[in-house]
Design a protein that fits this description.
homodimer, mainly alpha, Arc Repressor Mutant, subunit A, Tetracycline Repressor, domain 2, globular, DNA-binding, 2 domains, about 220 residues
Chain lengths: ~220, ~220
Amino acid sequence: MAVAARRERERTARREAILDAAQELIAEQGYHGMRMDGVAETAELSKGTLYLYFENRDALCAAVATRLIDRLLPFIESALEDASTGLDAVQRLLQKYYDFTEENPHHFRFAIEWLGAGERMDDSTEAFQIYRGRVGHMLSLVVASLQRGQTDGSIRADIDPLPQAIQLWTSFLGVVMVGLNKEAMAQRIPVPVDLEQLVPLHLDGVVRALSSGGAS
Amino acid sequence: MAVAARRERERTARREAILDAAQELIAEQGYHGMRMDGVAETAELSKGTLYLYFENRDALCAAVATRLIDRLLPFIESALEDASTGLDAVQRLLQKYYDFTEENPHHFRFAIEWLGAGERMDDSTEAFQIYRGRVGHMLSLVVASLQRGQTDGSIRADIDPLPQAIQLWTSFLGVVMVGLNKEAMAQRIPVPVDLEQLVPLHLDGVVRALSSGGAS
DNA sequence: GTCAGTGACTGACTTGCGGTCAGTTTGAGG
DNA sequence: CCTCAAACTGACCGCAAGTCAGTCACTGAC
C-alpha cells in the first residue's frame, strides 16, 4: 500500500500550503486582517477544506505561530552557545527573540493575543497543545540560562530560576508588544519618545536586576 | 432657556447610564463578552440610541476605561504622597496600579488590547483622545516620581526619566497582563508556577535596576 | 389651544465573517 | 466498468456591529 504513504505526503503538503497562505496573509494584513476566505482563495481551495485540516481559525494561527517558533529556536540556541556567561545568555536570548519578532511583526502578536485574551481564544485544540509545548521549551531555555548564570557566578544565587524566568518573559512581552507597534505607538503614546531605545533600556534593567556583581 | 440646560443634564445622565450598563456587562462577561445589544438591553434603550452617544463599540469601551482611570488616579496620587522617596513612589505607584487592576480584571484588559492591537482598534474617536490623555497623565506621574528619586538620591542620576518611565510602564503591562489571568495562566503556561509572586518579583527587579545604592 | 419644528429614540435591516454540511468529484481496487 | 472512500466544494447559517428611515414627545411661536 504505497498509496497510503503518498496520501499522507499529499495531506502534509496541503497542510503546509494552507499554512503558507495564512502566513502570507498575516504578514500582509496583520493577524486580524487575515480572513479564512482569503486563506482559502490564496491556497486555491474552498473554505470548507481549511476546516478539514484545522479545527478553526485559532488552531490555524497557532500552527503558523508554532512554525515560526521552530524557525526561531535554532537562532536562539546558537546565540546561547555563543554566550560567555549565563547572564550574557539571558540577554542574547531576549535580544534574539526581539529581533526575530521585529522581522515578523504580525505573527508574534498571536502570542500576545493569547496571553491578553481572557477567554476568547480557543486554546483547546491539538494545534494549540503543540504551540503550548513550544512556549514551554522557550521558557526552559530561560530557566537553563539563569541556572547557568548561577553556576558561573554571573547571576545572583538567591533567585529562583523558574519564577524569575516567567517574570523575565512576561515583562519582556510587554516591551515587545509596544516595540512591535513602534510606528503606531508614536501616535498612541501621548508623549514623544524614541521607542528604538526601549529594548536596550529594558535589557539594561534586566542585567542590573539579575547581576550578582555591582552594576556597570 | 433653562430647557437647554436640563436637556444637557439629561443627556449626560443617559451617557452615564450607558457607561454603567457597559461597565456592568464588562465586569460580568469580560471585555469580549460585552455586546452592544446587551448594553442596550441593560440600559433599557434601543441599540441605535447607543450610537447617538458613542461613535462605536471601541469608543464606548474607551469611555468606560477613562472613568476607571479617573477613579484610580486619586489612590495613586495619595500613594505618591505617602512615599518616603522617589524610588518608593515608583514602587507604590506600580503596586497600586496592579491592586486596582486586580479588582477590575476585565476592564484593564482594554489597555492591553489597545496596546497589543496593531490596527483593529479604532482610536480615532473623541472618547479615545480623552482616554489617551489619561494615559499620558499616568505616565507623567511615573516621570515625576523618577525625577523625584533623582533629586532625593534614591534613583540613579544617569537615567533619562521619560524613556525609563515608558520602559517601566510597558514591562509592567506585560506582568499585569499575565497577572490578570492568573487562573487561566495556570493552565496556559506549560509549567507549574506561583503567579502570586510575579508582581513582587518584578517590583524587586525594578528597584534593583533603578536604585542608586547597592541592592538590598 | 394647536401645530410645526426639533431632538431623542426605535428596531428592522445590512454587512462581514467564522463555521457547517449535504452533495460532488476523484481515483484506487476489484 | 462499478463501488467505495477520501478529498473537496460552495451555498448556507448564526452572530454581532453598525445604519437609517420612521416615530414619538416635548417646546415655543402664533
